[in-house]
User: Fold these one by one.
Assistant:
Number 1:
Amino acid sequence: MIDALPVLLKGLWWTVVITVISLLIALVIGLVLGLCSISRNKLLKTIATIYVDIIRGTPILVQILFIYFGLPAGTGITMSALTAGIIAISINAGAYLVEIFRAGINSIDKGQMEAGRTLGFSYGETMRLIILPQAVRRMIPAFVNQFIVSIKDTSLLSVIGIAELTMSGQSIYAMNFRAFEILALVGILYFVLIYALTLFSRWLERRFDVA
Amino acid sequence: MIKIENLRKSFGDLEVLKDINAEVKEREVVCVIGPSGSGKSTFLRCINRLEEPTGGSIYIEGTDITDPKNNINKMRQRLGMVFQQFNLFPHMTVLENVTVAPKRLKGKAKAEVDQLGKELLEKVGLSDKADVYPDNLSGGQKQRAAIARALAMEPNIMLFDEPTSALDPEMVGDVLAVMKDLAKEGMTMMIVTHEMGFAREVADRVIFMDGGYIVEEGKPEDLFGNPQHERTQAFLSKVL
């Protein structure tokens, strides 16, 4: 059991690394397509809608398999399992973040945009200086929630052989046959990580409630 | 200074402004009055293109603001606007609210802009509120901060969209006093208002709107004292 821990902690490390990188990419996707989804430009709006609908309308496991096995078979584009995993988690979380950004921006009173524009700021300047700073505060709990969801989603990357936490556990009990203890330990490690984030999220919510 | 020709504005099938022709001269204070739904706020909001006019032209100091070739952001810097709902930026202090536009748009140094901001806050009686967030201000204080914010870009014209309609009655006087001072200094002002006493006292000219048209306009003593049009008479008999 004790000698399993270093391997599991290494798996946990990869889980965190993959989640953090993916979420950073997803934030960019979410911001850009979130802005598209509220734009007056029909084309941009349609692109954002289609993306969100496709990703939310298909299981993440299928998305992972499609990127790692489907794309190379269909297009000849090959990539490492790690790259495929990060792409899959990024585009999946990105779709949910588009909705979070859209809702967050829409929750800001229309008068804020009018006040910014009236002073002479362009649409982009008003977004950056006036709307987004307010919207992002309101989005923080939803961000943290998506972070937690994505942590759990990375366990599915075990199907393409990435040695994140779940895969690390599997490889250990495949050799020592102590599935009960190892999987319990894997579960505890996920729980501790996610519970810490939950507490952090509650703290953030309280903090920004006051501000 | 402002010249409006054949201004029309429709929202879908609803025609809110039908054919507006008006002029505001330099240093003139013009109050726009009329029943709700008469189009007076839409009229004001067309002047800085918060509402896109459906037809007609609006000249600000000789430049047609409805011409897409003209940079609307630059033109808006000459037009200050004050809203009924204040629309202060809640994530910035009062001073930051006032200074954000000159700092970012005129590229002035922070010290210079902060000095200007403090002078403006002094002028509207909010010197002690510079570092407070808008949520901690009363309605009247918010509106005076909003006026200071609009003045910070040193506009040539100020537009007021029912600036006292969202205020408790005891707050109205402070805001009107600030506006009166501005008028005395010679600011060109266009004010949509329900404050008939204020219009009568401060306006050089009063415009009465109803049903998307300017029904009647004139000096306050004429329009309030001896309204010519039936609809003006009916409106004034209800509000005075």
Number 2:
Amino acid sequence: MKKRALQAMIRKDLTAVIRSKGLMIPMIIVPLIFFILIPVLTSLAPNLINIPGANLAEFETFLERMPGGLQEILAPYNLEQSVIVMMVVYVFAPMFLIVPLMVSSVIAADSFAGEKERGTIEALLYTPLSDLELFLAKLLAAWIPALLVSLAGFVIYTLAANLAGWRIMGEIFFPNWMWVGLVFWVSPAVAGLGLSTMVLVSSRVKGFQEANQIGGVVVLPILLLVIGQTTGVMYFNLSLVLLLGLLIWVVDAVLFWIGVRTFARERLVVGS
Amino acid sequence: MNDSPLIETTELTRYFDEVRAVDRLSIQVYPGEVFGLLGHNGAGKTTTVRLLNGLLKPSDGRALVMGHDPLGKGTTVRAQTGVLTETPSLDERLTGRENLAIFAALYQVPKLRVASRVEELLESFGLAGRADDPVGEYSRGMKQRLALARTLLHQPQLLFLDEPTSGLDPVSSRRVQELIADLSASGKTVLLCTHNLEEAHRLCHRVAVLRQGKVIALGTPEELAERISEQLQLVVEVAPEDEQQIRKVVHQRGWQVADQKQPGTYQIKGATRDQIPDLVRDLAQAGVDVYQMVNVQPTLEDVYFALHAGEEVRV
């Protein structure tokens, strides 16, 4: 494995992404919304409960619909605290996964379909890198930033949630072990899912936009998780997170295997 | 040409579905040679380059590049060759310097050599002044020069240049041709794919003319020209009012005469060298004032058009 060449390829793709406003703007705005705006607004939400006329009963009904395990967790908290814990720790947990998914998908689409569209792939194919090395470099170029954005987002989210919620919570309530599992086990797998999907999509489309549009369907499982959590069909706990991560890693492995077979010079040349 | 060839293909064939893109190609390219692959778009030139670098697998036949079969040793072959693709294939969001530095790492140029090698190439290709500008801001000619510089980063002995002057203005085109001539003078072996016949004539030691993936002529430009031109092509300039007389004299001898672009200038086909004095005498006797008579050697362009018009050239 030519480590230096791999590093150079990753550097190339990342530099190109960083210099592209079209790619960077959504990759800055979306994490800002998820990691700062949402925890801050959520921590302010209990104030709305104190507004005369606000319907407390509705939120209590919402909590009652949650699974028993979750109600037990929320039991030590008063209603205001429960609002914050419920939203910051549980409702937004699946939404957090959208960020690594989006970052890896966008970079992968640019790296695979975009490279094909711009006609820059051919020069890379003439380098002494093997198909596998080229493929790995391109995967890592999309995967590493997704992980970094996730980790940075987690740190920012932790700070924002605890700072904004301090007045009501009076303690550091975030993160819990479920979130640690989510960030370090599920999030890398979800990033892998985004980019593996995009690799497959990119091999069948002509350009970046098309790849993004078709590859966007990968967000659907995440939306199902969001719906499942908010309707009380399930709730994110450590066991679920570990199991979910395992499932996604398996899917990743299958997609990776297909991707390696798809990413062959012959196919790229004939398809270009 | 006593050395063993750097490229040797034997009946190399590649199909795309039913289309035979390369058809039983058998060529040898020797060290230090500039070998031209000539042909229309779709004649099989780019497919040949891809086959020789292990990007495509042959349907039949085999190739050896620097002693290695690109089919199984593509990585080894590509480490020793430099390829200029038909489009510059540069990342336009990166600067010229960054493009070269990244490819230097991909080609395993020693880490400590990268900066100086990049600088050296930027200087010699006249790009040093714009090295830190994004490539997207470069002209087409600058991009092509940068792409050419990229092929030389790892100092390969064998270069594949696919339509290196395609789409360039005449000045940029000439500049790139001069760079290729310099490379040849420095001992590099070049496989030049082009449909620019003047360029091939200027730069190539030998050429193979491809039609539908098949070699229809192979030799030096001069050899090919000789083969299509057993008879002379004379260009004669006479007074414009002598048109009737010159046509009469030429037709009496059973030769052909064709108008040239300049008034009073005619091309005569069919005469042999021994017959020139007779022609001059006949013209003088007919009262034709001859200002100039030139024996025109056929160019590679004449050869090419003759071949594509269906005239066979035995190779």
Number 3:
Amino acid sequence: MIAYPALAEIRAVDQVEGFGDDPWWIIAIKCLAIFVILVLMTLFTIVFERKVVAKMQHRVGPNRVGPKGWLQSLADGVKLMLKEDIIPKAADKIVYVLAPIVAVVPAFLIFAVIPLGPEVSMFGQTTRLQLTDTPVAVLLVLAIASVGVYGLMLAGWSSGSTYPLLGGLRSSAQVISYELAMGLSFVGVFLFAGTMSTSGIVEGQERLWYGLILVPSFVVYLISMVGEVNRAPFDLPEAEGELVAGWGTEYSSIKYALFFLAEYINMVNVSALATTLFLGGWRAPWPLSAINDGMFNEGWWPLLWFFGKVIALLFLFIWLRGTLPRLRYDQFMKFGWKVLIPVSLGWIVLVAGMRLALNEGVQREELMMWGGGALAAILVASFVIPLFTERRADVDEDEPSAEPEFDPFAGGHPVPPLPDQQVPAVPVTAGGTADETTESEAREEGPSA
Amino acid sequence: MELYAPMIGLIVVAAVFAVGSVFASSMLGPKRFNRVRLDSYECGIEPTPQPVGGGRIPIKYYLTAMTFIIFDIEIIFLYPWAVRFDHLGLFGFVAMVTFLFLITVPFIYEWRRGGLEWD
């Protein structure tokens, strides 16, 4: 029989302890502080990214504006503010102006439920370093992130131009595909934490970070967070080789800067969420947390650990961009739907089964053996099965492609031959019929024109 | 409700900033429009005329969106189950595995029929 929770217990779940009783001026200070932190983080991340990528490519990077170039992004922002604001003739004016605002406002909101630290005293008031928390805080984060997608989609749709439309469609398809893998990777965390409130999840990681217990969930989250914010190697919506600048092609001036701001804030957001759910939130890393009865886990110190972890994850983003080439679109979607989602689902069943067995009183050693065996079997199967299916597909494809004759005008316009292809001899047309002559003349004019 | 009220403050701050900066830039920036500058961008050639509202959208995106909705609903069911997992016991586990199985069958069907192929 299931033990249904009593009504009083359900009511109690509606509240999160320590939130909802701040005076209005503390809330105002926190709102402004979050706003300032996010804008500063964006300005910092842009220069940081340019400097790190420059180092990776043996360049100097920005070093002119301000001390060692650290004010470069601020100068760029001011410059963009003073640029001409163009609304193309073909654009849907209202939606076109609204799209950057729709993109940027939700980006600011996610930080409202991210815990930056424990209780501190602020002007005589004891309060938590977190704007608010709800029993469904992580769900709230996912909902807000989904609203942010509308910004990109509407930007592409309202520009009235080919490249933005394609870029907008791509980015929305990409974000919703990777949001699923992201959402599934949270389930393991909720299983262990028993709550969806972010402060509760951080409390649950007092002994061990969930990123260490739930390694597959953490890896799936790390991959899908890069896809979710459209960053390299998953930056297909703005693949400049094929789509110019994607959904942002028609945007200029501060509207373009707002999209940029939203993108970088979202990078900070997903890093902060990874820190909160998998890396112990604001808690100090292990050797430091043991010093002096956890002195580094109290007061204002946690801000340091929190932002240290966030910046480490931002560095990971930049490192990926400096290292990996961009994926092809079909590879990217295939990876999201056919690898990440099945892997997450299988992992959820495995973790839930193991936790159930522990709750029912199975010995830990025995369980580890069975769980490890199941995991190893799944891993081996995932390597072996594609080996057979894909090789068969390769053979099937190879056979019919037996040397088709090279036609330089196959696509309607002249194409140069590939290394092992031969250009067929140009037919001699003197003395042919009138139709043939005009056709071959047109062909001969093609390459020279 | 008092848990959600502080978020309104943050919405106000963000919206004031976003709307204000768009407005300020339209005041501050130069305005030297001409016909070519207001055209859609297309690599220096005559822009392709676009039907009002973006025209048709490939069916692939529709299929992706539908599959997304199904999996999103699945996730929404998984969350409360995961939060209360320790209280539900074996019954909860079996029920959720059955539910996941029911979603996985059409997923495999879509996969095999090529619904998850992109080009």
